[in-house]
Amino acid sequence: MSVARNTRARKAPGTPKPAKSDAKKATPNKRSARPEVPAVGPGTAHRMDLLETMLRIRRFEERCVELYSAAKIRGFVHLYIGEEAVAVGVNGALTAEDAVVSTYREHGHALARGIPAEAVMAEMFGTTTGCSGGRGGSMHLFDASRRFYGGNAIVAGGLPLAAGLALADRMREQPRVTCCFFGDGAFAEGEFHETANLAVLWNLPLLLVCENNLYAMGTALERHEAQTDLAMRAASYGMVAWAVDGMDVEAMENAARRATEAIRAGAGPHFLEARTYRFRAHSMYDPDRYRDKAEIEHWKTRDPISQLMDRMRQADELGDEELTGIEHRATDEIDHAVETAEQAPEEPVEDLLLHVTSTPSEVRRP
């Protein structure tokens, strides 16, 4: 019996690897690989939508940085800047009937899912018009009407919930997919392995998307995983799994569409390792001293927004006028979201136990 081993030499995380000279061998698992991406969707209009959604997420989070610095947003805030292609690409392959389970770094997931910026910003402010009524804050966005079943402050905490949603759909014979986002740190938790095992055992309609940004909080992937090819490890459970360029929104959508089509056809759970990178620190509290600045700058050259813009400009699909319009729409939307969040009421003290305890009339007795 052969055993797969990680024989790669240890080196600084994020260091690009030299390309192999053998052109016959595909290199989808190499971080430096730039595979050709098949066209997805109805051409230019679709690409424009992808670009606008990524820019909305980027500008929303940049405004959150300003508001946090001004003490208008409090608590933990985990920024998604640099990873926008994953949320936008994957959500592009999902339907309104599918379910999404997220992590504490979920602003991008929520906005890509269609939750209004106004509701997300109000939740950041902790006011009653927030999507979670102001009770969740940055890490607990939730909108059942859009089948967005929340961010989760517990690392890997969303995985068992996603398995339950997928099991319910399978038992009801609903043609739905449950998509669960999680980071490489969650891959090391028992919940991932328990969920992966049951998902294959029960043939669940589950799409597992690991956003591998190379760092579990401040710990480099190569310091906490003996085998850093996460897709290969996921495949050991018997599910279809492969790595995707998480800095390319079209590559992400193409992979997610391929996976969801197979899941709907009864092929069981699929796993995508989105190889991506966060440009900002783990959270607003994080001094970010564990990464080399040159590494960050290297990954910024692969900014998913800039890559798509360059591709569209080369194809004469994007001009200055269109880009200006996108920027203006994003700015106006976020300005309005901030204005309404600042004016929204806070929850009254008398409602603090609402949804926490039951009144005697609501308690069912045997």
End-to-end CA span: 57 Å
Unreliable spans: 1-41
Find the count of extended strands (DSSP E, 2+ residues): 7
Q: How are the strands ordered across the major sheet?
A: 1-2-3-7-6
Reading the helices and strands in chain order gives: HHEHHHEHHEEEHHEHEHHH
Helical content class:
40-55%
Q: What proportion strand?
A: 5-15%
User: Based on CA inertia axes, which overall geometry fits?
Assistant: globular
Number of helices: 13
Largest sheet: 5 strands, parallel
User: What's the rounded overall pLDDT mean?
Assistant: 88
Query: Which structural category do the helix and sheet elements fall into?
Result: alpha/beta
**C-alpha Rg, in Å?**
21 Å
State the gist of this model.
By secondary structure, the protein is an alpha/beta fold. The chain has 13 helices and 7 strands.
Notes on the structure:
By secondary structure, this protein is of the alpha/beta class. The protein is built from 13 helices and seven strands. The chain has a five-stranded parallel beta sheet with strand order 1-2-3-7-6, sandwiched between helices. A hairpin with a 2-residue loop joins strand 4 and strand 5. The N and C termini lie far apart (57 Å).
